[in-house]
From TrEMBL:
It comes from Elaphomyces granulatus. Belongs to the queuine tRNA-ribosyltransferase family. QTRT2 subfamily. Its cofactor is Zn(2+). Zn(2+) binds at residues 329, 331, 334, 360. This is Queuine tRNA-ribosyltransferase accessory subunit 2.
């Protein structure tokens, strides 16, 4: 394997079962797996500035989408590409002001990706930037990887987002993805014997959300011809974890399927996922929901999967509640603030509300993953999973309040002329403006006579 080291510590590598491991890249914090990758928007975890992230969270690995940065490329050079960096530096890291030891994973599209009306082609995939849909040529993607130097690059895949694909289309998906992978690895790592021109980014090859038989040739090639260039797998559907051939079973597996609940995360882990992207953490924070679950919950008699997975902080019942979001939680939010304050910040639409929730929710996920790793090592994961299912409700609570304002380009549009996703919290105060204008007309000017002043009256100061 290239510069990376991934050791499966428990159990044996080829077994498709929950496993713990250690992913190491030179210069980055080692990542204990299973672990999650925090999702970013334009290079930052939503609601967290880089210093807040450093000081108040344990986030150590990020997923960044190239489509967030390349609005008008190649006609207009995006600011990311203009950034000057030394040969040993990562332009992407410098541009996003991220610390040296954080693991940066770059993929072409956001997780979850928005459906694009333009189809992919044999040489390009369709993406959504802040100014609209366009094509990303496979060649330009490779060029971008060379230029911005992420730690890990997720290879291009010909995916059909949000639609069912027919047999012919599925064949095409495999052929194109196979070709993208072959070309990309050739261009990034060249032929053996030319180490100086090799890219420093390691390559995670996509595994398509299809049956084993449909992509057998491609998977075989990954384990054979392409094996020396591949450092990991990017899996788009949890069930694909079960079809990874033994030959590449020891590679780290990143899942991009976007689990919607902790139950789904546990299912992915039970199939041998190592790195997982979890959109619901940020979505819960946006929705004003403080996550509240642990692994493995103590199993009580008569448990009926009734415990909620989070608390809706919009609810006015917390308006005078001076307890932390979650009793016993050691995160910054829970140790410094109480529910009433968070409820107040949400009602006042203060940005700090979402920052504090994001800190707490990431801490909850950190503790969850740490406990999962311990349980795999102790051989109690399956019982823990069962106890989790018997204790917690199968879905996250519904949000009742409105989230922060959104630019909306990264959310699915319902059609042309769609209204703003979250309406503005502030508006013209027409009534007040009228009253103000009226009051203005009575304000005396310097040339007003004493009699007129007497009529309009004087302000009285309370002493
Ligand atoms: Zn907390």
């Amino acid at each position: 394997m290239r510069n990376t080291m991934f050791n499966v510590l428990h159990p044996a590598p080829a077994v498709f079962a929950p496993r713990v491991g250690m992913f190491v890249l030179p210069g980055r914090k080692p990542v204990h797996t299973p672990h999650y990758l925090s999702l970013t928007s334009r290079g930052a975890v939503p609601h967290l500035t880089q210093d807040v992230m450093r000081d108040y969270t344990s986030i150590d690995s990020l997923y960044i989408a190239l489509e967030d940065f390349i609005e008008k490329a190649p006609d207009d050079v995006p600011p990311l590409y203009k950034m000057q960096a030394e040969a040993h530096e990562s332009t992407l890291r410098k541009f996003t002001c991220l610390p040296e030891d954080i693991l940066l994973v770059m993929g072409p599209r956001r997780v979850p990706p928005v459906f694009t009306p333009m189809p992919n082609t044999g040489t390009a995939i369709s993406i959504l930037t802040s100014v609209g849909f366009r094509k990303l040529e496979a060649e330009d993607y490779i060029e971008a990887v060379r230029k911005v130097r992420p730690d890990i690059v997720v290879g291009l895949a010909d995916l059909v987002v949000g639609l069912q694909s027919g047999i012919k289309r599925r064949e095409k998906m495999v052929d194109r993805t196979h070709a993208y992978t072959r070309d990309a690895t050739k261009q990034l790592y060249g032929d053996v014997g030319e180490p100086e021109s090799e890219s420093s980014a390691v390559y995670f090859a996509p595994v398509l959300p299809l049956e084993n038989t449909q992509q057998m040739l491609y998977l075989d090639d990954l384990g054979d011809e392409l094996r020396e260039h591949i450092s990991g797998l990017a899996v788009y559907e949890a069930s694909s974890l079960a079809i990874v051939p033994d030959k590449i079973g020891c590679l780290p597996r990143l899942t991009l399927s976007g689990p919607k609940t902790p139950h789904e995360i546990l299912r992915e882990i039970s199939l041998g996922a190592d790195l997982i992207t979890i959109p619901f953490v940020g979505m819960a924070s946006d929705g004003g929901i403080a996550l509240d679950f642990i692994f493995a919950p103590p199993l009580e008699d008569g448990s009926s999967a009734s415990k909620p997975l989070g608390i809706d902080m919009w609810s006015p019942i917390y308006a005078a509640d001076l307890s932390p979001l979650v009793q016993g939680c050691e995160c910054y939010t829970c140790t410094k603030h109480h529910r009433a304050y968070i409820q107040h910040l949400l009602s006042a639409k203060e940005m700090l509300a979402w920052t504090l929730l994001q800190i707490h929710n990431h801490h909850t996920i950190d503790c969850f993953f740490a406990a999962v790793r311990d349980s795999i090592e102790a051989g109690t994961f399956t019982e823990g999973f069962l106890a989790f299912e018997q204790t917690y409700q199968p879905s996250l609570p519904q949000q009742t309040g409105q989230g922060p304002r959104r630019r909306g380009y990264h959310a699915q549009a319902s059609g042309p002329g769609e209204p703003k996703l979250n309406s503005s919290s502030y508006d013209q105060l027409d009534d007040a403006a009228e009253k103000y204008a009226e009051a203005q007309s009575f304000v005396p000017t310097p040339d007003v006579s004493a009699e007129e002043l007497q009529i309009s009256g004087f302000a009285v100061k309370d002493t």
